[in-house]
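Hey team,

Filing this mostly as a record. A colleague (T.K.) asked me to run one chain through the structure pipeline before their review meeting, and I want the input and output archived in the tracker in case anyone asks later how it was produced. No errors, nothing strange. Just documentation.

Input sequence:
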Amino acid sequence: MNIDFNKDNGLVPVVIQDYRTLQVLMLGYMNQEAFEKTEKEKVVTFFSRSKNRLWTKGEESGNFLTVKSIDIDCDQDTILIKVIPTNVVCHTGSFSCFGEKDAKGFLYELEEKIAQRIDSKTEGSYTYSLYQRGINKVAQKVGEEAVELVIEAKDNNEMLFKNEAADLLYHFLILLKAKGFSIEEIEEILKTRDQ
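Output structure:
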């Protein structure tokens, strides 16, 4: 990557974006040394203008930003880094320096919670108990929820319809986990059909 570090006293702006939800999390600055360290270690390191030194995000809080991808803009003077955050990103305690999580990314969050309950074998969890019953029961539950959604679609009760749609999505996420797939993989297929 050819990044032009000469335009602004050796620093370039860096936009940090959540890899899963694409929510913008923060803006920082890098010099060439910070960029090379980030690229090598796969953890975001900035050049702190206030501390006048390299600063790895999370070095004090433990809220690191694990790098998933790095891109530069067409002028080669701005960096976009997609990350998986360890925890909240903003020093104020907010998920993002631009506010709390938006609803757009909630399905990814829910997918992660479902995986955690299944992987940690959470006793008393509906999700884990359904998963334990096997793929046939999970698939059957998705079918039942789909039928209930179709029935509600024929009526005019918006709340019942939305609740059945939520039930279907939830159980579909369990089925994806049971089959070893992710929302992202399904999105990729949908993107290929976007013509």
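Quick notes for T.K.: The chain has a mean pLDDT of 92. The first strand starts at residue 12 and ends at 18.
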